[in-house]
Specification:
This protein is mainly β. The protein has helices spanning 33-38, 46-50, 61-64, 127-139, and strands at 3-4, 67-68, 93-97, 103-107, 116-120, 123-126, 147-151, 154-157, 169-170, 176-183, 189-195, 206-207, 249-254, 259-269, 274-279, 284-287, 294-296. The strands form five sheets. Strands 16-15-14-13-17 form a five-stranded antiparallel β-sheet, with no helix packed on it. Strands 1-6-8-7 form a four-stranded mixed β-sheet. Strands 2-10-11-5 form a four-stranded mixed β-sheet. It is elongated.
């Protein structure tokens, strides 16, 4: 599970009336199910029989809204299958060295579509601490980082306190995906990796990082994608258009001043069709270049 950084208290249990409880009913066991447990040939065999949990299936409203049921309040009790990540069984996986993308993760058995694979866990830190750590890593020559946005203002840093999930590579044609779930009892957000399709044993597990690198455009080179998929964007940034003309030198004419001002393009918004220009005097402007006189500098 996640470790919360000093100064960031882990969410506490909510009042009972504030905990979302589903309306599921305990499932009726199939004929012979009780006999299978009661007459298990050994004590070791019995747990295997009771491990089957059929409650809170596809129709569970908590499941539909990505909320894990609270084991203490769920009407399905021990038969609830919509349990927190730490209570779910992960398929066996192994770490291996890829040809050109560093370490990767693959299943040692087949993984069915929709199955939970692993929780993306680490240390929960603030966005301010995230920025500080990334700057420190850059200054020390460390090109890699293992950050994932958990919620507004909160980041999971898996570098030092993470698990195998931090080694799962990105792909533009992934066979898995990340999902954000909430614990009903506390509201805590947790990130899980789930299979998008049936994954054969031995096939690498991948998901699309879809980096949203706002404020990190200068590090865009670190987001170059090497997945090799026919649909590869060439970048792990989920908005590659924001890098249009990035780093290009430009002169923009300010009609009010009757003068040309030099700067560098530091971003682009496809929604507004505006380039972000950082001028040499440190002024910042978002401008529609088609609407103003400008010239590119070689």
């Amino acid at each position: 599970r996640n470790v919360w950084s000093a100064g960031l208290p882990r969410p506490k249990r909510l009042p009972k009336d504030d905990i979302p409880v589903c309306c599921c009913q305990p499932p009726r066991p199939p004929p012979g199910a009780f006999a299978a447990v009661a007459f298990a040939p050994s004590a070791e065999a019995a747990p295997a029989a009771v491990e089957v949990r059929m409650g809170c299936g596809e129709d569970c409203q908590n499941r539909h809204t990505y909320i894990h049921c609270d084991p203490k309040l769920c009407p399905c009790g021990p038969s609830c299958s919509n349990r927190p990540f730490h209570a779910l069984k992960s398929p066996p996986v192994e770490v291996f060295l890829t040809n050109d993308r560093g370490w990767g993760v693959r299943g040692t058995t087949s993984i069915s579509k929709g199955s939970f694979i692993v929780e993306y866990a680490g240390e929960v830190i603030s966005t301010g601490e995230c920025t500080r750590r990334m700057r420190e890593a850059k200054d020390s020559g460390e090109p890699h980082f293992y950050m994932m946005e958990m919620a507004s203002g909160l980041i999971i840093d898996a570098r030092e306190k993470g698990n195998v999930a931090r080694l799962i590579n990105s792909s533009c044609a992934p066979n898995a995906e990340s999902q954000k779930w909430h614990d009903a009892a506390t509201g805590e957000v947790r990130v899980g990796i789930f299979a998008r399709e049936d994954i054969p044993a031995g096939e690498e597990v991948t998901y699309d990082y879809m980096f949203q690198s706002s404020g990190l455009a200068a590090a865009a080179a670190a987001y170059r994608c090497r997945c090799g998929a026919p649909t590869c964007r060439g970048t792990m940034d989920n908005q590659p258009e924001r890098m249009r003309d990035f780093g290009h030198r430009i002169e923009v004419f300010w009609e009010g001043d009757g003068a040309w001002y030099r700067g560098t393009v530091s971003g682009y918004s496809a929604a507004t069709q505006r380039h972000t220009v950082l001028y040499d005097d440190n002024d910042l402007e978002r401008v529609v270049l088609d609407a103003v006189p400008h010239r590119w500098l070689v």
